[in-house]
Amino acid sequence: MVNDCLPCHFAFEEANILPHLPTTWQTWLRAEHASLRARGYPAAAVLAHSKREVPIFRRFAPAALVAQVEKEHAVFHPVLLDAAARHVPPTSLL
User: Fold this and answer.
1) N or C: lower Cβ tally within 10 Å for the chain?
2) Residue 1 located in a structural domain
3) The domain containing residue 44 runs over which residues?
4) ∠ CA 47-16-28 to the nearest 5 degrees?
5) How far apart are CA 44 and CA 25, in angstroms?
């Protein structure tokens, strides 16, 4: 299943990817997610964050989990990010 909302996606990463990361990267990911949540998931910042995190995930997390994250990142292109931040399913935008 692909998470189509940012809070759900972040929760997936924190539950499934975080345990595979070294402590330093766990701290970084938590801080990045907290900052993005606090700011209401600004689209440009979320996209920049996703580009930073994937190489880290590829280095430490199992390939199947990274593939899931990448599928979810593909859903969050700029047009849908605002809806995703509000937990609005993409189908309701059609």
Assistant:
1) C
2) no
3) 6-89
4) 50
5) 22
Selection from 52, 53, 57 nearest residue 19 by Cα: 57
Q: List pLDDT tens digits, range 76-89.
A: 765 555 555 555 55
Is 84 part of a structural domain of the chain?
yes
Dihedral sign of CA atoms 10, 14, 17, 18 in order: positive
Query: Distances from the Cα of 16 to the Cαs of 38, 57, 87, in angstroms?
Result: 22, 11, 20
Domain contains 79? yes
pLDDT digits (tens, 9 = 90+) for 35-46: 999 998 888 888
Q: Tell me whether residue 94 is in a domain.
A: no
